[in-house]
Structure formats: C-alpha cells, structure tokens
Design a protein that fits this description.
The protein has eleven helices and eleven strands. By secondary structure, the chain is an alpha/beta fold. It has a domain of 219 residues: Rossmann fold (3-Layer(aba) Sandwich). Keywords: Glycoprotein, Membrane, Methyltransferase, Signal-anchor, Transferase, Transmembrane, Transmembrane helix.
C-alpha cells in the first residue's frame, strides 16, 4: 500500500500514491493497446484483404494442377518410350523367340532353351549358362523355322536344304543346329588335285532337289547371274579361258594382279565366286582361296568342293567368320551389289576392309554400274577408305539386248592406318 501525507497551512489536504498505481495504469494501457492492435490486425485479415487470401489459395491450387499435369505428361512419355522400344525390337527382331506360341517345334524349344553350366560360373568368360546361337531375324519367320526344326531325332534329316537357305536369305543366320543325319550322297569319280580343277564328274553326286535344272547341261545354257553364264562348263566353255585370256579391257589377268602384290599374296577370299574358277586359277599359282556362295538356282557349293576347292556357305548379310587382317587379297565381282540403301554397302565394305591386311589387295572384277549414282556411291566409299588405286578401268560392254552397260574393274591396295 502506498503512504498518505497530510499538509496543513494552506487549507488543503493532498493524498499521493506511490509508483504501484503508476505501473498498474501503464500496464492496463499496454494491455488495452495490445487488444486493440490485435483486433485491428484480425479485422484487416478478415475484412480488408480477401483478394490477397484468394490469390494465395488460387496460386496453390494452380501449382497443384500443374504438378498433376507434369506427372501425367511424364507418365505418357515413359509409356511412349516403352512402346517405341518394343516396336523397335519387333521390327529389328531383337526380341527373343516366343517358345510358348502354338505350333513351335519341340526340337526348336530344346535347342533354344538356356542350359546351365554343370560346374557353375566359368572363371575365364564369366558366363553361367550356354545360350544357343541363332539369327535374330528368325523371329520373323517362326513358322518356316518350326518347319525346318521338325524332324525325327537320331533319324534322317528331311530333304529340305532349300527351306534352310530360304531362312538364310530372310536374315535367319546362323540357323539352329539339328540332331538328325543328313542324307548322304555317293561321291564317286572324284579326281585328285590338280586334275579335279578342270574335270567334270558324275552329276549324280549333286543334290538337285529344289532346283529348276536337274543336270549341268541345263545350267550351262542359263544365265544364273551376271557372273555365271555357262560357268559350270569347265571343260570347253569360257571358264577355261577366264582370267587367262581377257575378252575386254575390264578383264584383268591373274598374273598381272599377283605382280601388284609383290609376291605377298598367299590366302584370298572370293565373294560370290560362281563355280570356283577364280579359286582354281589361284590354286594353280599356289594361292589358297575361300569362295563364299549360296546354292541359288544351282549346286554351287557341291560343285566347288568337287573341284577340290573350299566353298563357304554364307550370305553377304552375315559377318565374315574370319579374324581381322588375315587375307592378302579379296576378290569381288557383282556379289558386291547388295542393293538397297547405301548403308548396306558400307557395312559390307567395312567388313571386307576388316579381314584384309594392310597392304593387301581388293580386286573389283567387272562390277556392273547400273547407273551413275551407283558408280558414284561406290567411288566415294572407296575414297573414304583411302585405298591406293593400282589399276582403275571403267568400260562398256554390249549386253544380249544390244544395249551398252558400264562396268568398273579396279585393283586397290589397303593403306596402313595408325
């Protein structure tokens, strides 16, 4: 409690309180000010700024909507990418063959199933199972592939080599292996080398199934392709003069080409070599040549083998089964004309370059230039590789219809690259 003082003399009496009353009043005023201020802010919040609150709420709502749209767009992009990847697999054929489909041959299932290694993971390669090697495009020819794989295990294989070749021409390469015995053909009358190079044998040693002609006489009157017109007549036909007596400036002599190799030509590869005459001429000069060919309209592989030469049953769409830089010479005629887009020729040329050693020779033999575009495409491609042109001849020939055709013959030397 505060004290009271009384003053006498002037007739008045005054009461004075201490600081308690002063502080209490100040506190009350402060509280009153706080209440008023709080009410004013509340009134401002609820009455004076409805637009600001609404704007904040609308912005929050818009952000949520945008976020949902972004999520939906990302889901659509992801789904589209998955669909495109699946379409690409189906178009190119990388998808594995669906063994659950109906009418799939049991032998095809057995061959394509993965088999675990009996001793577990291989320490050198890191593989844990054996995977069958089969062409990716086989998926596109599933019915034909199943037909090829229908046979009796341990029995005789069906006479269906043409089915297998049809699969190869469709890109189904390599073919799956089979567990059946191929039909044997008696190989009577075979001659020893070098007599076999230029001597015919009995026509009974060849398989004529699936072919239009059933004898050599029929084949020799047909133009099977640009590099094989009468090419099975190795006794009296032009094959006996080929590469020895030229008929035009585009026909190079083997001895002249070998001289360009400075004595370093020992092994060669012939692409689309017809009946094997190029390999025969090279054999006579101590050069071993592998001839890549299929049996399109004729028994090319059997005929080449009967001459004592090495046939390779392979399409030009298949990567050559040789290591890098192993051949001294690659010979290619119109088998180099793979058709289609320029990129397809590029893939082939790069594979040829891969197997040809540095300093080796690429012999283009009478390549048919059906138009200027094809000639320019091949010429520019050769220039990209940087090959040295040892010989380059562009000439014309008159075909059977009396029209002039342009051919390119060249001998090119592969450079040393670092």
């Amino acid at each position: 409690m505060g004290s009271v003082s009384l003053k006498v003399g002037d007739g008045t009496a005054k009461f004075k309180r201490t600081s308690y009353c002063s502080w209490s009043s100040a506190l009350n005023l402060l509280m009153l000010f706080s209440v008023i201020t709080t009410n004013l802010f509340a009134l401002y919040a609820f009455t004076s700024s409805p637009k600001t609150q609404s704007l904040n709420y609308q912005q929050h709502k818009n952000i949520s909507l945008i976020s949902e749209h972004v999520k939906m767009i990302l889901r659509e992009i992801d789904l589209s990418q998955k669909k495109l990847a699946q379409m690409e697999k189906e178009l190119i054929g990388y998808e594995s063959i669906d063994l659950s489909r109906p009418n799939i041959a049991d032998e095809l299932k057995v061959f394509l199933e993965h088999h675990s290694l009996p001793l577990g993971k291989d320490s050198r390669s890191g593989i844990t199972e054996m995977v069958a090697s089969v062409g990716h495009s086989c998926e596109k020819s599933g019915e034909l592939l199943s037909e090829y794989m229908r046979y009796k295990v341990d029995g005789t294989c069906p006479d269906d080599w043409s089915v297998g070749q049809n699969l190869i021409l469709r890109g189904c390469e390599p073919l799956p292996r089979r567990r059946c015995f191929v039909k044997t053909m008696p190989k009577e009358g075979l001659q020893p080398l070098p007599t076999s190079l230029w001597k015919n044998v009995s026509e009974k040693i060849y398989s004529w199934s699936g072919l239009g002609c059933k004898n050599l006489g029929c084949l020799n009157v047909k133009k099977l392709n640009r590099d094989c017109a009468g090419c099975f007549d190795i006794v009296k036909g032009y094959e006996t003069q080929k590469y020895a007596n030229p008929r035009g400036k585009n026909d190079f002599l083997i001895d002249d080409v070998l001289a360009m190799g400075n004595g370093g030509i020992r092994v060669g590869f012939d692409i689309g070599g017809g009946s094997g005459t190029f390999a025969a001429r090279m054999f006579e000069r101590g050069v071993t040549v592998v001839t890549a060919t299929l049996n399109v309209d004729a028994p090319f592989n059997e005929f080449i083998a009967a001459r004592g030469l090495f046939p390779l049953y392979l399409s030009l769409d298949h990567r050559f089964p040789f290591y890098d830089n192993v051949f001294d010479l690659v010979h290619a005629a119109n088998g180099l004309d793979v058709g289609g887009r320029a990129e397809k020729l590029e893939f082939l040329m790069f594979d040829i370059d891969r197997i040809l050693r540095a300093g080796g020779l690429l012999w283009l033999d009478n390549f048919y230039c059906s138009n200027d575009d094809k000639k320019m495409t091949l010429t520019r491609l050769i220039e990209r590789f940087g090959y040295k042109k040892l010989k380059w001849v562009v000439g014309e020939k008159i075909n059977g219809a009396g029209k002039s055709e342009v051919y390119l013959s060249a001998v090119l030397q592969k450079p040393v690259r670092v």
